[in-house]
């Protein structure tokens, strides 16, 4: 059984993950507005992945006999000054999420809630990857700065990462 404090913290994280999805959908619209479809596709896949994170928390809370509480999700920004700024914001957001996952893990340790601590291990590792993948793109964008041809090349490269849901729907799954 989860303590009240742990349950509240897990629900807060679930809602943060929902915001993450919302934020990446907002970034997808920003890139679609610029006709940078590869970047937009990458953002949609990222949003979809965040929904997967939401479901992990959702299922875990019910597995531990808790109750999911959905809260209001803040409206994400609509515009960024440049692709670099959008990826800077994404990188900052992932760092914030890593910090909040670490705080959750610390709380689980403090409460000797070993199942929750074990559950969070996946997220601790995932955040290392999430930060690294965003940082890699950010660094390339910074390098490209004033060279649109590199931005277009990167756009083609990022198109390789597409959301899975449409293909799943086409397969009738
Ligand atoms: Fe971006 O990893 Fe969840 O929030």
Would you mind describing this structure in some detail?
This protein has six helices and no strands. By secondary structure, the chain is mostly helical. The protein has a single domain, classed as Ferritin. The mean pLDDT is 94. It binds hydroxy diiron-OXO moiety. Hydroxy diiron-OXO moiety binds at residues 17, 20, 50, 53, 94, 97, 130. Hydroxy diiron-OXO moiety binds next to helix 1, helix 2 and helix 3.
Q: Using the 3D structure, state the CATH architecture.
A: Up-down Bundle
Number of domains: 1
Bound molecules: hydroxy diiron-OXO moiety
Low-pLDDT sequence parts: none
Quote the CATH topology.
Ferritin
In CATH terms, the superfamily is Ferritin, core subunit, four-helix bundle
Largest sheet: none
Q: Using the CA coordinates, give the radius of gyration.
A: 18 Å
Report, as a whole number of angstroms, the end-to-end distance.
34 Å
Give the CATH class.
Answer: Mainly Alpha
Helix content: over 70%
The counted number of beta strands is: 0
SS class: mainly alpha
Shape, please?
A: elongated
Number of helical stretches of at least 4 residues: 6
Layout of helices and strands:
Blueprint: H1 4-33, H2 37-63, H3 83-110, H4 114-144, H5 148-158, H6 165-170
Give the key terms.
about 170 residues, mainly alpha, Ferritin, 6 helices, elongated, binds hydroxy diiron-OXO moiety
């Amino acid at each position: 059984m989860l303590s009240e404090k742990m349950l509240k913290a897990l629900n807060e994280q679930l809602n943060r993950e929902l915001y993450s999805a919302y934020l990446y959908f907002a970034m997808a619209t920003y890139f679609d507005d610029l006709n940078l479809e590869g970047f937009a596709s990458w953002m949609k896949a990222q949003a979809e992945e965040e929904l997967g994170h939401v479901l992990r928390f959702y299922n875990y809370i019910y597995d531990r006999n808790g109750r999911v509480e959905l809260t209001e999700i803040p409206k994400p920004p609509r515009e960024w000054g440049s692709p670099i700024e959008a990826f800077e914001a994404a990188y900052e957001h992932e760092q914030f999420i890593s910090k909040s996952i670490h705080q959750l893990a610390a709380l689980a340790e403090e409460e000797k809630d070993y199942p929750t601590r074990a559950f969070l291990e996946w997220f601790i590792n995932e955040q290392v990857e999430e930060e690294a993948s965003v940082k890699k793109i950010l660094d390339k964008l910074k390098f490209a700065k004033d060279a649109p041809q590199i931005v277009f090349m990167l756009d083609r490269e990022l198109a390789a990462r597409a959301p899975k849901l449409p293909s799943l729907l086409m397969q009738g799954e």
